[in-house]
Every structure is written in structure tokens, then in C-alpha cells.
Design goal:
Elements lengths: L19 E8 L3 E2 L3 E4 L10 H5 L2 E3 L2 E5 L5 E4 L1 H14 L7 H15 L10 E10 L11 E11 L10 E5 L18 H4 L2 H9 L4 E5 L7 E4 L2 E7 L6 E5 L9 H12 L3 E5 L3 H9 L3 E8 L3 E10 L2 E4 L7 H14 L10 E3 L2
Parallel strand pairs: 9-10, 9-16, 13-14
Antiparallel strand pairs: 1-2, 1-3, 1-8, 4-7, 5-6, 5-7, 6-18, 7-8, 10-11, 11-12, 12-13, 12-15, 15-16, 16-17
Helix pairs in contact: 2-3
Length: 349
């Protein structure tokens, strides 16, 4: 049914690129040209390209999953298309029409989906990108842009076995500022986080906990992922996530989990929680679990928090039952093992 697939078990996430690329070009005079499928190849670019110098670059991430009958389906691509448009608009870039975006999803998934094989732990990760490709160093929005969509075969973001991650609280750096670009997916948001990520790794942690930039200690995100907190235990547990303040990304997985958690009978909501409150509620047994979520991470438990030389454990430090329940429910939906009442899984034609 499928061609031989690359074996990603020992490869770094994001390194197993597939064979094809969809590209389209926009100019101020003509608007969007046609999107075309071609072989994956290097781009030729002028060293004065505006996107390279001034950061007019936005991207997305979404996945296609193998279904029980052997077909492929993509999870909520319409939401990524809309967020891609919002990101472009925030950086004064032309919006990629949703139809062009969704057609590109279908084209690349149909061309390279066979590389996923039959392993349910694998998926086809799609990476749309829009960048200013005009060669000009005037400090202004570009007058030419390139849209592309590529893909790679993905396994687990944190490895093949899901284990709780240890996280490090950044007290002296912030990811995003009010009125900035924290709520869109632009390239500049990520490079600025690398130094804190390095410090986290030096402390023996896998990810950075980002707090608000105003100094209140409010928890916002984990690396490039959204965070959830579980209060209580069992069917009566409450599942909450930081509210969207304009400084954190409105994740598609975040939105989906709020719906799934409510459908599974948990109380759900959005909240404001400081890092000190997080610690205190863990010590009091109120917060029993914490997990991160995202396209790459799916649902990943958080076991320990390192903050200013001290640390604490969440619950027992092991993956909690609510986290496991939500992860299983999301994976069952991705892989077609359960009903899809909202039509989130879009078949690849």
C-alpha cells in the first residue's frame, strides 16, 4: 500500500524532508500567481532580500495522519489557513487565499503522504512559509513575496516514548510584549527564544516557561507550546489554560483540547495563573497535573519545574490520568479510531 518510508526513530525532529515543494509568487502589480508543485530544491535568493534583513517571514505547522483504511487526513487545515492570514496581515504581508493554502495542503500531502507508511506513530508534518523575496534594503514592506509549502516525516517531538518533561522558568527574558507579535506565528518570535532555551538545557530542562513581559509573573506559554493545568482528580477535574491576552499564540491544538475535554466530561476554562500560584497550588494538591500541547508535541506531560534555583514536582511527577486521557482522545481522533463530529479530519483526495 505504501512505498518504503524513512525511519525517523534516530533522526532529529524536522530533518526528514519529503520530495516535493509547492510554491507561488505574489507581486504588487499582479497579485498571486499560480501555485505549482515541483521537486524539493534549494532556493536562489538575493543577499538583499527584505525577508532576510527585516524579518517579514511567517509560517504554520499542521499534520496529516494515516487513517485505518490506509487513507490520509489532515487535522483542521482551515484553522491554520486563517491563522496564516492573521500572521501575514500583522506583518503587512499579502494574505494567502484560504483556497490556495488548502489546495497546497492537498497537493503536498497527496504527493508525499506515502512516505509516512503504516506506522501510527508517524505523521506528515506540513510547513507553509511566506517570506518577503524582493531584493531591496529600503525599510518598508516588500513588493514581492513567495509562498511555499514543504513537508517532513515526523515522529514524537520529545522522542518515541512520552515521558514528563522538566521545564525552566525564564524570569529575566520575555517571549512577547503587549502590542507585539506574540499572538501570530512569525519567525522572529522563535529566534529570540533560543538563548533561554539554551539556559534551560544547561539546567537539565527540556523547555522554557514564558511569563508575561510586564513582571506580574503570569504564566503564558511553554517554549512554542500552549500550557494546560489540571485541578482536582477524576471525572470532576477541571482543565484550564491561560487566557489569550494577545501575547500568546492561539493554538489549534489548544482550541481542540478545550472542546475534547468538555466532551469527555471535564470542566474547562481559561484562567490567569502566576508561577508562584502554580507552585502553591501544586504544593496544596490543587493542581494535580500540567501538560503542554501543540502540533508537534501533541499532549506532553510536565513533571518538574525549575525556578530561580529551586524546583517542584507536579503531582507524582509521572504522567497524570487526565493528561493521558486527553492525549489518547486526540490521537484517536487524528488516526480515525473515533468519531469526528466536528469534521476536523479533512481527507487527502
Amino acid at each position: 500500500m505504501t512505498a518504503e518510508a524513512p525511519a525517523p526513530v534516530h533522526a532529529e525532529h524536522g530533518s526528514l524532508f519529503t520530495d516535493h515543494l509547492v510554491t507561488a509568487r505574489w507581486t504588487q502589480e499582479e497579485g498571486w500567481g499560480p501555485a505549482r508543485l515541483g521537486p524539493l530544491a534549494d532556493f536562489a535568493m538575493h543577499p538583499g532580500m527584505i525577508g532576510l534583513h527585516y524579518g517579514q517571514v511567517v509560517f504554520e505547522g499542521l499534520k496529516a495522519h494515516r487513517q485505518p483504511g490506509g487513507s490520509l487526513a489532515v487535522f483542521r487545515p482551515d484553522r491554520n489557513a486563517l491563522r496564516f492570514q492573521r500572521s501575514a496581515a500583522r506583518l503587512a504581508m499579502p494574505e494567502v487565499p484560504a483556497e490556495m493554502f488548502l489546495d497546497a495542503v492537498q497537493t503536498i500531502a497527496a504527493a508525499d503522504g506515502h512516505l509516512v507508511g503504516d506506522d501510527p506513530s508517524l505523521s506528515l508534518y506540513l510547513r507553509p512559509l511566506l517570506f518577503a523575496s524582493e531584493a531591496n534594503l529600503m525599510l518598508r514592506p516588500a513588493r514581492e513575496y513567495t509562498f511555499m509549502m514543504m513537508a517532513f516525516v515526523a515522529g514524537g517531538f520529545f522522542g518515541e516514548v512520552v515521558e514528563p518533561v522538566r521545564v525552566w522558568v525564564s524570569r529575566d527574558q520575555a517571549r512577547a510584549f503587549p502590542g507585539g507579535t506574540g499572538n501570530v506565528k512569525c519567525a522572529a518570535n522563535y529566534a529570540g527564544a533560543f538563548l533561554a532555551q539554551r539556559r534551560a538545557e544547561e539546567a537539565g530542562c527540556q523547555q522554557v516557561v514564558w511569563l508575561d513581559a510586564l513582571g506580574s509573573g503570569r504564566v503564558e506559554e511553554l517554549g512554542g507550546m500552549n500550557l494546560f493545568f489540571v485541578r482536582g482528580e477524576g471525572p470532576g477535574a477541571e482543565v484550564v489554560t491561560p487566557e489569550l491576552t494577545g501575547t500568546l499564540l492561539p493554538g489549534v491544538t489548544r482550541d481542540s483540547l478545550l472542546t475534547l475535554a468538555a466532551r469527555l466530561g471535564y470542566r474547562t476554562g481559561v484562567t490567569t495563573i502566576t508561577v508562584d500560584q502554580w507552585r502553591a497550588e501544586c504544593a496544596a494538591g490543587v493542581i494535580t497535573e500540567t501538560f503542554a500541547c501543540g502540533t508537534a508535541a501533541v499532549v506532553t506531560p510536565v513533571g518538574q519545574v525549575h525556578d530561580s534555583g529551586s524546583e517542584w514536582t507536579i503531582g507524582t511527577g509521572a504522567p497524570g490520568p487526565v493528561t493521558a486521557h486527553l492525549r489518547s482522545a486526540l490521537l484517536d481522533l487524528h488516526q480515525g479510531r473515533t468519531s469526528d463530529p466536528d469534521g476536523w479530519m479533512v481527507p487527502v483526495l
